[in-house]
Amino acid sequence: MYTQYIHMHSGIVISQSDSRPMYLQIMEQVKQRVAVGEWGPGDEIPSIRQLAMDLRVSVITIKRAYLELEREGVIVTQQGKGSIVAPDPDLGSRLYDEEFSKHLAKVAQLGELLGLSSEEIARRTKEASSRLSGASRTKEVV
Amino acid sequence: MNDVSVHFAGVSKRYPHFSLEEIHFELPTGSIMGFIGANGAGKSTTIRILMGLVHQDTGTVEVLGHPMPADQAAAKMDIGFVSEDMRLYGAAPLAWHMEFLRGIYPRWDQSYAENLARRFDLKPEQKIKGLSHGQRVKAALLLALARRPRLLVLDEPTTGLDPVARVEVLGELMAALADEERTILFSSHNTLDVENISDQITFIDRGRIIDSDNKEAFLDRWRRLRLLLPPDVVVPRLPGVVEVGGSGRLPVITTNCFDPVMVSVCNDLGATVEAVDTMTLEEIFVANVHSRRERLTA
């Protein structure tokens, strides 16, 4: 029963030098896995204890991360049955969208700090976007 | 099954030059408690009382439902204890110790013991006196774990271990908790080990418990607020302030009962909150000890 945990790898990596609390790091990495579709809707994910053994992180920390992920609708925990990714086919794109909104809010906040008008912020965003597509076109040519 | 594996209430023990006062804490079954204190803070004395090796002057101690020290013989069948001064028989090999304990403890798990020996890179035929410090610690831990005790009590298990051995030892401690019915209490002055694997954390200093809580609550409660004060605005009075540092217009406030509301309270009082920093367990421990010692000498 012991070896099974040793070889069960979630692929989640906790960084000791990351100043954010560990539960936030775990939440973020679970969300990334769901967003890119590595963990699909309805898929079984490691139990709280399994993940704790795997990461050598206390059970209470994983519990907290799972509780918050459940609150955000990313996972569903069934009493005595373990946890699954929420069976919502749009979950991956919703998570990307949330991430996008978060960054947009940051852009707006920084823009305001710099005293930019909303037209100016919009223009700069458009510029950044066309620079990015320009860059990927160049890559294709190369 | 008990929900609480260890319960201390009002435990005191006086020595001529040191006393433990009013020790109170409980350890829920299925969890790991990290017991943190400086050298000489009272960690080992508390652990000895828990094990029935030292008798308290006052207060009650219950371990796995057994009152201590009265019922220590029964309790000890279910406790695995590893401490630094633990004596293994130097002239005998590890395998001899394994065989010996197998005869005493009915729950001894031989295949788990052999498994652990491989994972810890220990050779059962090697004599104890030929082992390095790290190998001895791992051997003692193997002997405690393979008994499959319901409670593991470890006094400074990671002290003096190299980084690789530390990770191995902590990993096996976590693995031992896989079935939710086992409980671990370990003392350490390495806050990083404790921070990673503990569910419950207890700070002890100069013979007294100064704080005991679950780890997430601990890390959530403590914050450092960096403020920017306009001229002639005073530092806002906030709850749970442990320390005010920084400079006049750039004060840094450490609080042990942080609430996000504090940020808007500060803003309302005219102070700008530049940053809200989380704190590591080590920073929390040091701030906690300092503020308490200052209050005592004030």
Outline:
Chain A has 142 residues and is mainly alpha-helical.
End-to-end distance of chain A, in Å? 52 Å
Find the structural class of chain B using helix and strand composition. alpha/beta
CATH class assignment of the largest domain in chain B = Alpha Beta
Radius of gyration of chain B: 22 Å
Mind telling me the C-alpha Rg of chain A? Answer: 19 Å
| Relevant CATH superfamily of the largest domain in chain B | P-loop containing nucleotide triphosphate hydrolases
Any idea what the shape of chain B is? elongated
> How large a portion of the residues of chain B is in β-strands, by DSSP E?
25-35%
Explain what this protein looks like in three dimensions.
The complex is a heterodimer of chains A (142) and B (298). With 142 residues, chain A is mainly alpha-helical. Chain A folds into two domains: 3-85, Winged helix-like DNA-binding domain superfamily/Winged helix DNA-binding domain (Arc Repressor Mutant, subunit A), CATH 1.10.10; 91-141. Chain A contains six helices and three strands; from the N terminus they run ααβααββαα. In chain A, strands 1-3-2 form a three-stranded antiparallel β-sheet. In chain A, α2 (22-35) packs across α4, α2 crosses α5 and α3 packs across α4 (59-71). The longest helix of chain A has 24 residues, at 118-141. Chain A is elongated and about 55 Å long. With 298 residues, chain B is an alpha/beta fold. Chain B folds into two domains: 4-213, 3-Layer(aba) Sandwich (Rossmann fold); 223-278, no CATH class. Helix content of chain B is 34%, strand content 30%. Chain B contains ten helices and 14 strands. In chain B, the strands form three sheets. A six-stranded mixed β-sheet of chain B has the order 6-7-8-3-9-10, with helices on both faces. Chain B has a four-stranded antiparallel β-sheet with strand order 2-1-4-5. In chain B, a hairpin with a 4-residue loop joins β1 and β2 (19-28). The longest helix of chain B is centred in the C-terminal third of the chain and has 17 residues, at 281-297. The radius of gyration of chain B is 22 Å and the shape is elongated. Chain B starts with a strand and ends with a helix. The mean pLDDT of chain B is 90. The interface between A and B is medium-sized, with 20 and 25 residues.
